[in-house]
Amino acid sequence: MASITFRGVDKQFDDGTVAVDGLDLDIADGEFMVLVGPSGCGKTTSLRMVAGLEDPTDGEISIGDRVVNNVATRNRDIAMVFQSYALYPHMTVADNIAFGLRMHGVAKAERRRRAIEVAEILEIPDLVERKPKQLSGGQRQRVAMGRAIIRQPKAFLMDEPLSNLDAKLRVQMRAEIARIQRRVNTTTLYVTHDQTEAMTMGDRVAVMRRGVLQQVDTPKQLYDSPRNLFVAGFIGSPAMNLIEAVVKVVDGDVELQLGLDSIRLGGEFLARHPEVVAFDGATVACGIRPEDLEDVAIDTETPHHRRISVEVELVEELGSDVMVHAPVSANRVMTDELREIQADATGTSLDGAEQATSAIHLGGNRGVIVARCSARSMITDGDRVELSVDTTRTHLFDLTTGLAIT
């Protein structure tokens, strides 16, 4: 095993495209690190540079104590798992798993023993005599993992390994990959565009945008303390509600004017975040997670100054909870970062002029918020209701810089 280190790594392609810009990242020995971000953010290019499939334009990449910029892929002691399983159809599971050992001249009996051992780790010992065509997608992915594990490399590199699986199998396999990685305790760099996958699997998650590392932290810290609007909008499902708010600091309290509604955050909020005083009278982005909103009929103890009034547009009954969609009188926040997330989610693209837009407020769009309410809520479409706000978990962002104020 070994650590992986990026130091000031740049990658610019021949056409002038900057795929990675000044990447500094330390992946500890045995750590499961996930690179996540929208399409074209540089995550796969970063992984390919570790693998030796792309050369960095500048900076250094190290595996353990060795700088590997000029080391051939075959000499880096890494194992790669990609979207394509690339299994040999004429070979059994055992032979597929052991293929790398065969290429290194390991004796047949030893190859067999180690393949069975790896199959036990993968919980597929009863499949070792089957051919790939007799396996499900998830079983094939396990075999591809086994081929990487059996080599006992210093590091695993995984590029969207679950993208070819259906939704239900992806949920199962992400738990399996995390379990296997913890058992073999091998340093892992995992690339995905799926933020739910990233949050459930990684020891730490590195969020990238346009080749630049935005934030790297534990999943909980990313969720609870996003550093900027991009991370706030990208991490979380459903996404964080982001609407305009005018800040008013009065008598040691912070009041947020949200269109026709206002909520008071309390003196304890100002005590924790004295920097808010500098934004008195300014319009900021107010971020509220869906789970930090609740039907007042359920949360009856919330005082009136921590409630907002909405007319419900749509209710989604999910069994475990209820998703309430409702317009609010405040404008939604839409910056270039958030438009980029939206475009990636819908499969559309931004043109050059849109991509060049700085992180400025584009207002004029009426906000719609999503509340994740208790399954006991009786809210229905068209109701006029009050939602309580957990003000201890309210996020504020500077609309000029996109950076978190709190």
What's a concise summary of this model?
This protein is α+β, with helices and mostly antiparallel strands and about 400 residues long.
Characterise the protein shown here.
The structure is a single chain. This protein has 2 domains: about 5-235, P-loop containing nucleotide triphosphate hydrolases (Rossmann fold); about 240-395, no CATH class. About 25% of the residues lie in helices and about 30% in strands. It contains 12 helices and 21 strands. The protein starts with a strand and ends in a 9-residue tail after the last strand.
Low-confidence stretches: 351-364
Strand elements, count: 21
Main β-sheet description: 6 strands, mixed
For the terminal residues, how far apart are their CA atoms? 38 Å
Fraction of helical residues: 25-40%
- Under the CATH scheme, the architecture of the largest domain is 3-Layer(aba) Sandwich
By CATH, the topology of the largest domain is Rossmann fold
Please tell me what the overall shape is. elongated
Strand order, main sheet: write it out: 6-7-8-3-9-10
CATH superfamily assignment of the largest domain? P-loop containing nucleotide triphosphate hydrolases
Radius of gyration, in angstroms, nearest whole number: 25 Å
Which structural category do the helix and sheet elements fall into? alpha+beta
The CATH class of the largest domain is Alpha Beta
Summed over residues and divided by their number, the pLDDT gives a mean of 91
Q: How many helices?
A: 12
Secondary-structure map with pairings?
Layout: E1 4-12, E2 18-27, E3 32-36, H1 43-51, E4 58-63, E5 66-67, E6 78-81, H2 93-97, H3 99-103, H4 108-121, H5 137-149, E7 155-159, H6 167-184, E8 187-192, H7 195-201, E9 204-209, E10 212-217, H8 219-224, H9 229-234, E11 241-250, E12 253-258, E13 261-264, H10 267-272, E14 283-288, E15 293-295, E16 307-311, E17 314-317, E18 321-331, H11 336-346, H12 352-356, E19 366-374, E20 384-389, E21 395-397
Parallel strand pairs: 3-8, 3-9, 6-7, 7-8
Antiparallel strand pairs: 1-2, 1-4, 4-5, 9-10, 11-12, 11-14, 12-13, 14-21, 15-20, 16-20, 17-18, 18-19
Helix pairs in contact: 5-6
